[in-house]
Amino acid sequence: MSQRHLQIVYRLIIVLLIFIIIYCFLLLRPIWKPILTTLMIGLLPFLLSGLIAYLLHPLVEKIESLGLKRYLAILLIYLLFFGGVGYAIYLGIPMFIKQMKEFSEQLPVFLNQYREWMHHLEASTSNFPKGIQLQIDERINEIEQWFNKLIEKTTKAIMKLFDFILILLVVPFISFYILKDLDVIKKACWYLTPKKWRKNGVQFLDSVNESLGGYLRGQLLICVIIGAAAAIAFSIIGLQYPILLGIVIAITNVIPYFGPLIGAFPVVAIALMSSVKLAIIAGVIVFVLQFIEGNILSPYIVGKSLHMHPLFIIAALIIGGEAFGIIGMIVSVPILAIIKIAIIHSRDHLIRTRQTYR
Questions:
Q1: Where are the transmembrane segments (predicted)?
Q2: Do 26 and 323 form a contact (C-beta atoms < 8 A)?
Q3: Who's near 122: CB < 8 A, 6+ residues apart?
Q4: Dihedral angle of Cα 241, 247, 249, 254, to the nearest 10 degrees
Q5: Judging by beta carbons within 10 Å of its beta carbon (0-12, 13-18, 19+), is residue 220 exposed, middle or buried?
Q6: Range of weakest confidence among 64-78, 112-126, 187-201
Q7: For a disulfide at 255, which of 89, 212, 249, 259, Cβ 3.0-4.6 Å?
Q8: For residue 174, what is the enclosing H or E element?
């Protein structure tokens, strides 16, 4: 067997081993998921604070370079960022709560309407051959079970969000101290890192920042634009719960490929409660917004900063969704980008090490 064939076999074995590890990891989910969930809840304020500090840091650096003291630069950014967010929340929360209340009141009506559609579909296929009828009945039952689980999960997620409000109140304070003492944190990490890893560690973090920085900031801006545009458009056409649905569109917009479908489902489902025409118009709005996002906003604001093949992104989305649902799909692409950078740096380090000892 030639050297080239051996390399191909070696790479196939590596890929197979990776899939086996991922499969075993998913099989052990009942063991590690509760532990990881508890850790994530405890670390959530620090993770969010770190993300906010990471997003605001370039602005603080730029203002500080103009001659303003660091703490004043942070206070200025805080007034603009948290002031804007707070004002938006102040305006949006009453409408959000009102729409949540209306949605909870209309939910039984919506479920009854959905069950009537299912019964009508079942009745309309009653004249089909017995084998086909059994298959249709099974699919209808599966769809009904999936829809009921979706409603249950959505309700639980909304209730958990309110449980986290007190925890999230400490996020601005943690972010402030991270931004203020960032140099101290960097020095502490530098001295805690073994000397032989410091240079490679700095290069790795620089690569992660270069790849992820623009992506995260760009995605955040795009989500705000698309979510606000969706809420305004839904309000104009008279769709119920425009703010809730705009938030759904904004959040699911982070998920590549599958996000538009996930976000469009509740929009079209709620629009169908009014009329088929409204559902078609709402679907067209979602399609137009996604077209604008994919062909204008993303190329201009985000670009191709991650440089990853779509197959790897889709695989990461499937694994993330299987492990942690929507949250897993949202964080899977940034985690994949970090893993990719780590693999490239490890490979380059091994190549340099081999060349040194030759």
A1: 12-32, 38-60, 72-97, 157-179, 220-237, 243-262, 269-292, 312-339
A2: yes
A3: 136, 137, 140
A4: -170
A5: middle
A6: 112-126
A7: 259
A8: helix 171-180
